[in-house]
Each structure stands twice: as structure tokens, then as C-alpha cells.
Write a structure and sequence with these properties.
Shape: elongated
Distance between the termini: 58 Å
Helix content: over 70%
Strand order of the largest sheet: 1-3-2
Number of strands: 3
Largest sheet: 3 strands, antiparallel
Number of domains: 2
Radius of gyration: 21 Å
Length: 240
């Protein structure tokens, strides 16, 4: 009896999870454009599902800052707000600068050493060992920066850093659109790790600041270009 009564839950959960992943990917790829308005019924029809997983998926996306709901007026993909992203990047920079200064200034504990060794194994590699898949590199890049903060040993700082990461992901992942940015990321990550290893806090701070600021500038340019291209294509389709 217990098995029969609980069996439908995983299927329902999997439908909701699958829809969440599809919607999230469509927002990230600008198939659902920033500022686009829609209802739950429209999403249900578009993806061929019932409204229950639609609402669950949208609520989850709302907690990530990707969509927002309006009372009796449907939903909207959150518009790109570069002022907000600038503020988030500034907070990210403060957290990571503090983390690397601490790591480069004080003796490392066992847990911090293990974390940093793991990051080194991923990023301090020969060119032939570097990944070229943009999506995979974006995920490992997030893990690198989270790893630096985790190694510093402040769980509350790590929690806030994770929230910032969630909110800038929609544009940050575009940093790896071009191959040269992947190569630069490998080199800059390796340099940061070497500065920590050599106990040079000023150098580590300078490298992290420059790395984050460079990424911020690149993602802004790429985001604007992608939005212009996608909107132009959508306009051509609607006119034809």
C-alpha cells in the first residue's frame, strides 16, 4: 500500500524538474526574451504539460531571479538590468578578494589545501588538457570561484556568494562564448592559485580583481550583442 500511494510523486517531481530545466535553458538562451510576458496557460500549452508543474517551475525560477509573477497578470522574464548586475559583481568581488587575501596570508588548514589542490588539478594543466566546451567550462568556472570562497572557511560568506552566482549566471555563462576567453580563464585561474601558493596576498587580490572585472566587461558586450541578434531574428520572422 505504501509503495502504491507514493509511486506517483517521483513521476510528478520528474515532470516538474524537466520543465524547470527546459524553461531555465530557454531563458538562458534567450528563446524566452528578457521582458517577455506570458501566462501559465500559455506555457502549459507551449510545453505540452499541465499547469501544476508550470507553476512549480516558475516559482522556482522566480527564487533565482529569472522570472517574476504579477497578481492576476501573468509572468515576465526579468529584463536585463546592467546596473543590478554591476552591484552583484561588486559584491562578488568583495567576497572573493577577501577570500584570496585570507588564503594567501595565513597558513592553510587541511581542508583548504585539499580544496585548492583540487582546483589546481582542474585549472593548472597543459593546453592540450584544457576543455573547449563552453557550457562545461562555465560550470567549472563557477566551481573554481566557489572553491576559493569555501577554502577561506566562512560558510555564511559562501552562502551569499552562491546567491550572487545564481543571479549573475544568465550573463556570466556567456563569457565563454569565444575560445580565447576559455584560454584566458585557464591562465588567470592558474595565476591566482600560484599567488596563493606563493603567499602573495597583494598579487592574489590584484589578479582576482582584474579577472572579475575583465569577465564583467566581456559578458556585458556579449549579452548586448546576443540580445540585438536574437531580437533582430525575431523581428525578421514576424515580418516574413
Amino acid at each position: 500500500m505504501n509503495q502504491e500511494s507514493t509511486a506517483p510523486a517521483p513521476r510528478h517531481a520528474s515532470r516538474g524538474q524537466a520543465l524547470y530545466a527546459r524553461l531555465r535553458d530557454d531563458v538562458f538562451e534567450f528563446r524566452l526574451l528578457p521582458g517577455a510576458r506570458f501566462t501559465e496557460s500559455e506555457i502549459a500549452q507551449r510545453y505540452g504539460v499541465s499547469r501544476t508543474p508550470v507553476r512549480e517551475a516558475l516559482l522556482r525560477l522566480q527564487t533565482e531571479g529569472l522570472v517574476r509573477g504579477y497578481f492576476r497578470s501573468g509572468w515576465e522574464v526579468v529584463p536585463i538590468d546592467f546596473v543590478r548586475f554591476d552591484h552583484l559583481y561588486e559584491l562578488r568581488k568583495l567576497i572573493e578578494v577577501h577570500a584570496v587575501r585570507q588564503l594567501a596570508s595565513a597558513p592553510l588548514g587541511e581542508e583548504a589545501r585539499v580544496l585548492l589542490d583540487g582546483l589546481g588539478a582542474r585549472w593548472v594543466v597543459d593546453k592540450a588538457q584544457r576543455l573547449d566546451d563552453a557550457r562545461a567550462v562555465a560550470g567549472y568556472d563557477e566551481a573554481f570561484h566557489a572553491g576559493l570562497v569555501a577554502a577561506a572557511g566562512n560558510p555564511e560568506m559562501l552562502r551569499v556568494h552562491g546567491e550572487v552566482t545564481d543571479r549573475i549566471r544568465i550573463i556570466r555563462r556567456l563569457d565563454f562564448t569565444y575560445p580565447h576567453r576559455i584560454g584566458s580563464t585557464y591562465e588567470e585561474h592558474a595565476a591566482i592559485l600560484r599567488a596563493i601558493q606563493r603567499r602573495k596576498p597583494d598579487n592574489a587580490e590584484m589578479l582576482v580583481r582584474a579577472h572579475i572585472e575583465r569577465s564583467q566587461q566581456e559578458t556585458r558586450k556579449i549579452t548586448l550583442h546576443r540580445l540585438h541578434t536574437v531580437r533582430g531574428e525575431a523581428h525578421q520572422e514576424s515580418s516574413s
